[in-house]
Every structure is written in C-alpha cells, then in structure tokens.
Amino acid sequence: MPSVKITKIVTILIASLYGLTACGGNTPNDTRPYFVHLSDIHLDTDAVNITYGQDTGSTLWQATKTKLQEVITSATPPQFILYTGDLPAHYACTYPNCYLPEFDRTDNNDNMGTVLNELRQFANLENIPLLYATGNNDSLAGDYHSFADAQQKTTFSLSANPSNPFPALNTKSHCGSAPCMVSNPAPTMDYYAAIPIEGLRVILLNSIILGAKYYPVDGISHLHAGNMQMQWFATQLAAAASNNEKVAIAMHIPPGLNAYAISQGKGEYWMWAHLPSQDNSWLNQFLTLTERYQKNIIGILYGHTHMDELRRLYDLNHNYITAVALAAPGITPNHYNNPGFKLVFFDEQTKELMDSITYYTTPNATEWNSYQFSTEFNCPQSYSIFNCLEQMSLTEVNTAMDRVYTVMHGEPRYNTTPGIEVYTDQ
Asked: What stretches pass through the bilayer (predicted)?
C-alpha cells in the first residue's frame, strides 16, 4: 500500500509542476506520453507590449518562452515538439503579390531568425526532436511564396547548423532507430517525414504549395510542385502501412473550407487550390489516401487559423469520418484570440491521440491558465479524440468548439460551422 500512496503523491506533484488546472478547477491525472504542439508565433522583434489584433511582442514572447521551458525541463518532458508554421510578424504588402525583394527583407529575416534560433534552444534543452512545418509567412521571398527564393535560399539559412539542421532537429539523418529522418526528397520545398519515437511516422507536408494562393519563385510551377508532393505523400503512407507504423500528418494550412472567408461573403472559399483538376484535386487525392490508410493515421495537426479549432475528414462518399484534424492556436493574438499552445497526450502502445491541454494567456501575459479537451468536449477518459468526435453531431461539435475557439477570449465573431466538416470539393 505505501507504494500506491507514493505513486499518487508523485502524480500530484507532476500535475502541479505542469500547472494542469482546467477551467473548472479539476486537475487531470494523465501520465501518458505527450508532445508539444506550437504554431503561429508571428514575432515582431520591434514590439514590446501589445494587445489583441497585434502580433507577438517581446513581453508575450518572453512569457511564452518561460512557460515552454517549464514544460520541457519538467520531470516528464515531451517526447517531441511540433511547430506548424508562421515565424515572423505580418508585414504591409507594398509589392505585387506581397513579394519581398532582397533589399527589403531585413525585418522579416530578423523575426524569422530569432524564432528559429530560440526554437532550437528549446529543443536542445533536453535534446528533444523538433519537427517544423513551414507556414505561408515563412518564405524569404514573402507571404505565400515558395519556400526557396529565386537564388534557392531558404529560411533555414537564418539558423544554420550543419551538425543539427532544420527541419527536424535532434534527429539522425538516416533511420536505424528513432529519432530519425525517413525521407527528405526536396529540401528546398520543405516536405519530409521523420520518426521522432519508435512506431510513429510524422509526415510533414508543405501545404502552402497545395494552397489556393501560391507564388513560386523557385523555378517550379505550382502544378508540378503540388503533384510531386502528393505522389511522395502517397508513397510515405504506403511505406508506413508496410512497416506497421502509425502516422501523424502535420501541415500549416488545413484542408477544407475557410469559414471566416465564407462569413465575409466570399462564397465557397476553399483552403486548397482546385488543382490539378476539379474532379482530381489535391484535396480529393488527400481524402482518398486518408480513407485508404485510416487504420494507420492517428490524426492531422495544423496551424494557420490561430484558433483552437478542429476538422473532421470524410470518405469520398461523405458517409463516415476517416480522420480528425486538430489545430494549435496561435501565440500571436492577431486574430483576437488569446495566445496559446497545446500538450497533446497519446497512448504509448497504439499512439492514438487521447487528450490535450491548452495553455493560454493574454497579450500582456500576466498569468497562464489551461483547459482540457476531454472536459470541454465531454469525452470519457478511455476514448481517443477520434472516438469522441466521430460520435458527436455537427451541432454538438460546433457548440463545444465555439467555447474554446478563441482560446477562451469570448465567442467567435463568425459562424465556424462550415470549417468543421471536410468533404471532396467536387
């Protein structure tokens, strides 16, 4: 009996160290492994104190770094860190298509280089793998441009370290045992696959290439770049299935509809381009593959919207859910959200995503609060996130999501429903 008592005390101490206090005052008792999901920092190195509608200043970023360090150096550090894109602050588009010529990249490069270097420091605190998926703001050439510029330079030159290079820090260049890089066929396009822990392959897509708005300056057309990536994606899923691996898919821009754009009267505004054709679009190919390999896929992780949202992907006939996609909220409060990031818990054996804790603060970062997915969505502890969401009606999902959508900064400013269900774009 004494050993039971000691175990209970240790569990309470770990929960206290993490600050895992949900909004209702309950303390989760979750000793399962987890990873950190972080996105959309949008750092403005010239700003200090900021408010809603602005990008991350030094006060908020310092508070975020302190909280992240507390998590990473705790008694139970994360298995890996996932960053799903957008490093620098937004900038005014003074050139066609928001292109940034080389002589006008200083501020943008300073912002990106600072965040990349400090993400590197977090990963190196405990030698934890850090996997990076590029965002639309992460190109040297400007917003929604190809990852490589006309000189074939990429953002990674701003934080270069040949012995431990981006995009997957603290992983071996070839696989024998985890953590390791599985495939990196196009380094200047930033899509790749890595195994951060045994049995889990993380496939990181450059969904900017797949996006409705994309400006290539690297000499490779939008159509060709997207087709190459989708062909590679199919081979990665097949290889994972052959090796009996579980798969997490990470990206910046999620598939499906843009609920905000629809609310602005822009019609059916799709996140991804209708390429290569309406009937055989990249979205439809993606949904075909997620249906085919649904037994291997544990979930899809993304950023871009800055909100704490989710999506449910359906089979081609719109009959049943094949996968769920979970967003990390933005650190920036630019979209009038509270700044936040997630701890995502998974089952050690099956790798299924079981729960998450969202830490959040205010633009002035006076204190950190948290809430738990299973509490907000009324999920039994034994259910995976997928099991929970597949049994809920759209109304139930939307009601629960709207409670946390702005990361506890009030109700959404628009109808979020169109962004939840992801069907083919035919």
From this structure: none
* Residue 250 · residue 133 · CB < 8 Å: yes
Query: Residue 83 pairs with which residues in a beta bridge?
Result: 38, 132
* Cβ atoms of residues 169 and 179 within 8 Å: no
Which residues share a beta bridge with 313? 323, 422
Tokens at residue 49, please?
A: 């104190």
Return the pLDDT at 12: 31
Q: What is the DSSP letter of 18?
A: H
The full set of domains in the chain, from first to last, is 30-422 (3.60.21.10)
Q: Whose structure tokens read 């009267």?
A: 265
Contact assessment for residue 312 and residue 365, using Cβ atoms and an 8 Å cutoff: no
Tokens representing 17 are 């160290």
The confidence score (pLDDT) of residue 128 equals 97
Whole-number average pLDDT of the chain: 92
Say if strands 369-372 and 340-346 run parallel, antiparallel, or are unpaired: unpaired
Asked whether the beta carbons of 338 and 29 are under 8 A apart, the reply is: no
Reply yes or no: is the peptide bond before residue 276 cis, omega within 30 of 0: yes
Cβ contact 39:32 at 8 Å = no
In contact, 279 and 364? CB cutoff 8 Å: no
298 φ, ψ (degrees, to nearest 5): -90, -20
- Helices in 19-105 by DSSP H: which ranges? 58-72
Residue 249's alpha-carbon distances to 257, 296, 327, 378, in angstroms, are: 18, 11, 12, 25
The secondary structure of 84-102 as a DSSP string is -S--BPP----SGGGB--G
Helical axes 282-292 vs 222-242, angle rounded to 10°: 0
Closest C-alpha to 18, from 66, 74, 78, 69: 74
In angstroms, the CA 101 to CA 171 distance is 34
269 token code pair: 């505004």
**Residues of the chain below pLDDT 50:** 1-29
N-to-C CA span, the chain: 62
CB atoms within 10 A of CB 103: 6
For residue 75, give every residue at least 6 positions away whose Cβ sits within 8 Å of its Cβ, in sequence order, or none.
Answer: 13, 14, 17
- Residue 355 phi, psi (nearest 5): -170, 170
- Confidence (pLDDT) at 139: 98
pLDDT on residue 13 = 34
Q: Tell me, what's the pLDDT at 284?
A: 97
For the chain, the maximum distance between any two Cα atoms, rounded to a whole number of angstroms, is 71
CA distance 423 to 426: 9
